[in-house]
Structures are given as C-alpha cells and as structure tokens.
Design a protein that fits this description.
The chain is α/β, with parallel strands linked by helices and 435 residues long. The chain is built from twelve helices and twelve strands. The strands form three sheets. Strands 1-2-4-6-7-8-11-12 form an eight-stranded parallel beta barrel, surrounded by four helices. A two-stranded parallel sheet has the order 3-5. Strands 9-10 form a two-stranded antiparallel ribbon.
C-alpha cells in the first residue's frame, strides 16, 4: 500500500504509536517531554507497516499532540522555571575543528534480528568510516513485554543474536573503528523505557543484570573498547536503593575482567537522577535538549541555535544547557560523551529533538528546508560542544543498517547532515585551544 492510498485510520494508528508515549508523560509520570523518544525506534517500523513516510505523518501531528501539550508543557516549565538567567555566550568560531582524541561516532542500529548480518550493515560501517568516523556504538535491544513486566529478554525476531553482534564488531574493528557495545531495553507495547514500573523491581534488576553481564562477557571476548551499562532508564535510577543496585552491577562487570571504559546513557532530562556517575569512566548523555520553543514560526539560523544552547527559551523560561552539563561535570568529576545526539530531517526539529514528528508550526516544510534544518542543528551542536574541553565526543543517532530515508527520519545518510559529519571529522586533531 502506497502512502498516497493509505487509509486515514492507518495514518492515525501510526501517529498514535509515535506520540502515544507522550500521553503517558501527560498522565503525570514526571519524565517530561522526552517520553516521546520512544517513537525513535518505533516510528520506522510503524510508518513502514502503514505505508507512510515521516513526511506523511508530520501534517497531522499537531492535532494529535494538542491533547497532551498543556500538561507536558507544564512539566517542562516546572523543570526550568527556577533556573537563573543564562549568561551571554562566547560565540564559537565558525570554522570546523575537532580535538585529537575526539570520539567521532555513530549509533549502528537495527530493527530485525538479522540486520547486523546483512550486507547493508557492512555498507553502513564502511560509509561511517569513509565519513571520518572513528567510533561506533553497536546497539542490540532486549525487550519487556509491558511496562510492568519484571524481566527483560531477547526477542527472536528483533534482538540480534551474538553471532550478528560479533560480525558487526569484527567488521567495525577491521575498518579501524573503535567499538562500544550499547545494549538497551525497549517495551513491546511502545512504552518509553524511561517510564517502566516493574511489578517486582528486584526481579527486574536480577534479569537486567544477567543481560548486562552477558554483554560484558561478550565485550571482553571481542576486545570491545567500551560498554554502555544502561540507556535512559530514568524510573530505575530514582533513589538510593537503585543506586546501590547499579553500583553492584558495575562492580560485577569489572569483576568479569572487562577492562574497557564504562558509561551510562542518561536522558537529557534525567541527568541528576543518576547517583553512580563516579563508578563509571564517562558521563553519558542522550543529548536531545530542546533549543527553541515549540510551534515556533520561523526557521532558526545556525547562530540562533548556537545561542540557544546557552539560553534556550523553552516553555517556562530560559535555561543554559551548556551550564547545566558543565555543573554536572564539575560535581561528578567525570568527562562527558554524548552517547546520542540526533535531529529528524524536518523543519523545526530543534524544538523537540526527541520527537520523530516535532509539534511545531513549521514542521510541514519542504524537503530541502527540512534537510537544511537537520544540517543546521548538527553544525550548531558541533560548534558549541567541540569547544568544551571535557566533552570527548558525539555519537550521532542514528546510523541504520541501510540508507532508507523513508523509514528512518533521524538518519543523516544521503542528506546534507552527512556532509557536515564528514567535514568536521576531517578536522580531527586540528583544535588545540580550550574553553
């Protein structure tokens, strides 16, 4: 079924899957706007099944999102209303330049169990290396049957088997790419992983620990350079007891003899929930920080976006995201890696980088303008964060095992944003000044 003939019901069903997690956030979970991030992996599958492109979904997104916006906006406002007014930023130079040792990375993602064994996976890794990438996060996903399930498990149709992971690791290493394993958890019903509430928390942690030690053992055997011990599990890092359990899991990984670096990928709005940063080598951030207000009426320039990193006028007042991250680094005394950062190729993507269908007035812009908006957001992020001395790299979300632009809105492949990646990566080692 083509997008042009897809029934209206299919269109709304796909939108409901993509934005449904926002309804969960609006119900008072406290995880804020980032709950919409569940749409990132789900949108590709859902849009493809419905015969839709992300562009087809965009036009109707505002109407469906309207019901949840007041509550989510209020949650965002509560989070930033007490922030001090940000200081005037120093404007980074326009020219691309990266430090030696900068982790120029991508997230190699898959939807099906055999994706990492397909020729498209090898092609994706070769393309990343040709663009000057130095690192790759390989992302196998395990699943919960529901938000209240007390265990995680491999899904035979979606989770890559170890042989597939080993193939992707070996291919990446043969190309000279540094590899991080980044196992993550999704929920089969579409609930955002940051909102899970297992009926038996202790049983969930026991199950999760088995998954983590499995991949730690695999990482040791394959001589993988880094392991991400968790991804955006905000509801499971929410107190001292959770912190104790996470520290125990991290110790168990070390005791297995794994010598690589360890990090945890915290959601942008969950950074201060994590109580175990000092047990890790890096602070990992999935950095989908909102930069401009939703329903913005104009397309921000690169200069606007650079400024917004230092003074983002999101709902509720200004917030200086650079200062937020800087303060975290100063307290925890750990360098920072952006384990994820990405933008959908659609206009106004910087308003809600975590949303597959950003709910802003200009979101239905033409393809050229949309791809330019994605590229501008990449450029602004690199201009700002490449000059922050404690930030050690960015892993772009995402780099799929094929270059299907219809079912992967975040992919920069074949778009101007890929040119930006290559241009900046080519400068690695040329930046010597520190901010």
């Amino acid at each position: 079924m083509s997008a042009a003939t897809a029934p209206t019901r299919s269109r709304w069903s796909a939108l409901a899957t993509i934005l449904g997690v926002g309804v969960i956030a609006a119900a008072g979970t406290g995880c804020g706007l980032q709950a919409e991030a569940a749409g990132r992996p789900a949108a590709r599958r859902t849009a493809a099944r419905a015969g839709l492109s992300v562009g087809d979904l965009t036009g109707a997104a505002d109407d469906l999102a309207a019901a949840i916006r007041p509550t989510t906006a209020a949650a965002a406002g509560a989070a930033v209303s007490s922030r001090p007014k940000p200081h005037a930023p120093a404007t980074p130079p326009d020219r691309p330049a990266l430090r030696a040792g900068w982790q120029a990375g991508v997230n190699l993602t898959s939807d099906l169990a055999d994706d990492f064994l397909a020729p498209g996976s090898d092609d994706a890794l070769r393309a990343a290396r040709a663009d000057g990438s130095t690192s790759v996060e390989i992302v196998p996903t395990w699943y919960m049957s529901s938000a209240t399930a007390s265990s995680v498990a491999a899904d035979p149709t979606r989770t890559p088997p170890d042989a597939a992971v080993e193939h992707a690791v070996a291919t990446a290493q043969s190309l000279g790419l540094q590899v991080l394993l980044k196992p993550q958890v999704d929920v089969l019903d579409g609930t955002y992983r940051g909102l899970i509430a297992p009926a038996d928390r202790q049983a969930w942690f026991t199950s999760y620990r088995a998954m983590l030690t499995h991949y730690a053992t695999l990482a040791r055997q394959l001589r993988v350079g880094g392991l991400v011990v968790g991804v955006e599990l905000g509801s499971m890092v929410s107190g001292p007891r959770d912190t104790t359990l996470w520290r125990a899991m991290i110790r168990s990984v070390r005791q297995l003899g794994y010598k690589g670096s360890l990090t945890y990928a915290a959601n942008w709005d969950q950074l201060h929930l994590v109580g175990f940063w000092r047990a890790l080598d890096y602070i990992g951030i999935d950095a989908y920080f909102p930069l401009i207000p939703r329903r913005h009426q104009y397309s921000p320039t690169i200069a606007d976006l650079v400024s917004a990193w230092h003074g983002s006028y999101v709902t509720g007042g200004p917030v200086d995201w650079v200062n937020e991250v800087t303060q975290l680094e100063r307290v925890e005394r750990r360098p920072v890696v952006f384990t994820e950062l990405g933008y959908v190729a659609t206009a106004c993507t910087a308003a809600a980088p975590y949303a597959v269908v950003p709910t802003c007035a200009s979101a239905a812009g033409p393809t050229v303008a949309s791809r330019r908006a994605q590229q501008d957001a990449y450029v602004a992020a690199l201009r700002v964060w490449s000059r922050v001395s404690f930030v050690r790299g960015i892993y772009w979300w995402d780099w799929p095992t094929d270059d299907n632009e219809i079912t992967d809105a975040y992919s920069p492949r074949g778009k101007p944003a890929e040119q930006t990646i290559a241009e900046w990566n080519a400068t690695r080692g040329t930046l010597t000044a520190k901010r």
